[in-house]
Structure formats: structure tokens, C-alpha cells
Amino acid sequence: MKRMFVFVFSLVFILSAHGVQAAGTITVGDALYTPNGTDVSVEGYIVGVPVNIDTVEQSNFTSNYALALADDASETKVDNMIFVKLDSEYRSQYGLQNNPGLMGTKIRVDGTRDDYFSHQGIEYVTLISKVSGDDGGGDNGGTYTGSYYQAAEGLTGYALKQSLHEIIDDHTELSYSNVWDALRHTDEDPSNPDNVLLLYSGKSYSKYDNGGYVDDWNREHVWAKSHGDFGTSMGAGTDIHHLRPTDVTVNSARGNLDFDEGGSAFYEAPGTYYDGDSWEPRDEVKGDVARMIFYMAVRYEGDQGELDLEIADYVGTSGPYLGKLSILKEWHAQDPVDAFEQNRNEVIFKDYQGNRNPFIDHPEYVEQIW
């Protein structure tokens, strides 16, 4: 019996050392001392982008090709980090050049221990996922780490809203025709660069199947353009922070309805419900919708001849109002900021408008204002 125990123990050790993944996850500290060739499942905080054996960028990221993980979200010592090589299928969603807001997010990485840049690393990644309940950022998403919001620090309520307005107010305005090309970029399907993802249905459509026919996608104004009567004019009518690709039929069904819960299922957008005065999108984008509405209410405050858009806590609104505030706040909490939203925010900022959605970067601002 003793010989059998020794044999089994030795066999388990040998299999573990040659790539059989042990149950559960390990810390970065444990992974640093795990032999190369071992399959591992590691949890750690994203702390930067490794660019050589002893250098990790922790701001102004220049690459989407790798991540550095540590057991402490504020770690700066490279010896306490493990490097993760990102293959092409993970770069658009987790690369920090595209998603700087992921800094400090806790993730799980499944892959094989193998040195990267001659430093302890993980390669041949098979899974990356955020660790539920610990994202390293605000109340439900990664906090933006740059100085963009410096003027708003320490403020709450109306003062915070006004400060954020001043920060995001001045930006490049697109023509309505240019919105087509912008959406092909901002809403690109991470799994298929030839397609865009449609907001309400979640379908992946060819980037160039756009227009006004039944099977096309078109430009949905999430803040319905009749709520303020801004149409498609430059400014609110072409602000791509709230313009999204949507199936023509689904867009028509939504019309100018307020946002609320309940109603009948809409067959062309699974998980979507509607009635005579409200529209409820699928769970996966409820938070996205809410944060776009919050953005519009802060960006358009009535100065310089623009509209003053406001969120009401009821449905059946008219004029420059849209509802329903209490439901939008619930959706914001229920559906946290994800990598697609963060990437979209970054692309709009860098390549198109030069301004950001504060509620993607700092989800906690919602409760501090409303």
C-alpha cells in the first residue's frame, strides 16, 4: 500500500510538471515559481505592457501584444510580475493600447508557463476572463488612469456634472455621411474585422451591408433624435458616442421610445421587449445604453446655442427629455463596462471626436451626479 501511494504521488507530480493543469487557480507569485511547460490558471491584476525583459509600460501604451500581471494592482517592480503573451484573438479585447481602462483590472489567464522576453511568462493562452466582483476600478468598470478628468476630482452633484461637461464639450463634429465609416471602426466585431456588431440584436453584419433596406444596418440614435428635435445635424445628431449600428427593422421598431422594462418580446432582437411607450434592450447591452444616455445629458447642457438634454424618471417623455432615469441607473449597475465599450470609447477619443464618455471611464460618476 505504501509503494502504491508513493507511485501515485510521483505520477501526479510528473504529470503536473508536464502540462496537466491542476484544479483551481494560482496567484502570480506562485506562477513565477512554476516550471516552464506547466499548464496554469493564474489570477492577477493588469499592471502594464512588457516591452523587454525589464521594462513594463504603465501608461502611454504602445502595444497590444502582451500584458504584465501582478498580485497587487499598484505593483511597479518587474520582478513581481508575470508576462502574458497575447495572441491575435485576444489583442482587440485585452490589449492596453486599445483598452487603457483595463489597467488595474483583475483577470484570469489560462495558458502554459513559458518565458516571454526571457522573463517568467505565460504563452499559448486558451482563456482570458475578468474575475467577477473584482475589476480593480470603479463600482462596475475599470477606472481611467490618465489626467483627462483631473478638473473633476473631488466634485459631486451639479458641480461634477458641469465640470465633466466642460471637459467633454469641445470636440470634433462629424458629418452624418462620415458616421458610416466611423461606425465601421468603432463597432467592429472583435472576432471578425469585416463585420460590425449590431447593438440591439447582437448580430455580426458585414460592414458594408448598410443602408435603408430591410436586411441592412443603419445609424441608430440611442438618444432618439426627436427628443430634442436635433435630427441628423452636426453635434447631437452625429455624435458617435450615442450612434450605433442597428438592424433597420429593429431601429424602426424602437423608434423614439423611452427606456424601461417590460412589454412584448421583439422577435428580431432576442432578449428585447417593447410596448407603446418603452424599449428594453437585451441584458448584454443595458449598461451600454444607460451610459450613452448619461453621456448625452452631460455633453449637451444648453450652452453655445445647443440643446439642454435631460433624463426624466418617467416614460412618455417629449421635448429634450428621455426616460427612465431610475431604470437606466439599474441597468448601469447590472451590466458593467466591458472591453468592447472601453475600446469603442478609446477609438472615438483618439480617431474621431477627441472626447470621452466619462461614465465608461468612471462608472461611479453616475451615483455622484444622479
TrEMBL record:
It comes from the Bacteria. Residues 26-128 form the Endonuclease YhcR N-terminal domain. Residues 1-22 form the signal peptide. InterPro entries: Endonuclease-I, His-Me_finger_sf, YhcR_N. Keywords: Hydrolase, Nuclease, Signal. Pfam families: DUF6359, Endonuclease_1. GO terms for molecular function: hydrolase activity; nuclease activity. This is Endonuclease YhcR N-terminal domain-containing protein. The lineage of its organism: Bacteria, Bacillati, Bacillota, Bacilli, Bacillales.
